[in-house]
Amino acid sequence: MNQTAINYGKVLFLLGVDRQIVAEAADIWEESEPLREAMESPVVGAGEKHRLIERIFPKEIQAFLKVVCDNREVDLLPDMFQAYGKWYDESEKIRRGILYYVEKPAEEQLTRIEKKLCSQLKCNEVKLALEPLPELIGGFVIRIGDLEIDRSLRGSINCMKEKLVTGTPKV
């Protein structure tokens, strides 16, 4: 993600556009290849692009999209939407991460994990994407930013190996 996309994402956030509207616009953009081709085409005029924006996108985001279009930066829209999400999460103290697992955790177990992480990270909400990773053998690994919590059988085995080889645990 380049600085231009980050700046646009911040502007979109500062404009106060609702997260649902941004998500809807991102979905529209992602789902329509003909739309992306028309908006990125130098052959299609600015007026035509503006009319497309007015017909397809929610009213609350149209002015922003027209400016992006006029500046010929529509190819950066996915990164702009992503940057908006990061600004939003930061303002709401939401942390996102990934939980790698062998056996998918039950919903109540996942809720307990997220609540404990909220307390540990001093944030309002933790949202974990779930991703299977069979090579963990058992247990799970959580990654949120620089934080990694390894409660996997593979991690325990590696730690024991390290203790046996060096006489001290790997930190």
Question: How is this structure best described in words?
Answer:
This is ATP synthase subunit delta. Belongs to the ATPase delta chain family. It is found in: Cell membrane; Membrane. Pfam families: OSCP. Helix 1 crosses helix 6 and helix 4 packs antiparallel against helix 5. This protein has 8 helices and 4 strands, in the order ααααααβαβββα. By secondary structure, the protein is α+β, with helices and mostly antiparallel strands. The longest helix has 16 residues. The chain has 2 domains: 87 residues, Peroxidase, domain 1, CATH 1.10.520; 71 residues, 3-Layer(aba) Sandwich (Glutaredoxin), CATH 3.40.30.
Please give the count of helices: 8
CATH architecture of the largest domain: Orthogonal Bundle
The geometry reads as elongated
Binned, the helix content reads 55-70%
The CATH topology of the largest domain corresponds to Peroxidase, domain 1
The ordered string of helix (H) and strand (E) elements is HHHHHHEHEEEH
The proportion of strand residues reads 15-25%
Strand arrangement across the biggest beta sheet: 2-1-3-4
Mean pLDDT: 93
- Give the C-alpha Rg: 22 Å
Question: Class of the largest domain in CATH?
Answer: Mainly Alpha
Fourth CATH level, the homologous superfamily of the largest domain: N-terminal domain of the delta subunit of the F1F0-ATP synthase
Number of domains: 2
Keywords: ATP synthesis, Cell membrane, CF(1), Hydrogen ion transport, Ion transport, Membrane, Transport
Pfam families: OSCP
Main location: membrane
Organism: Jutongia huaianensis
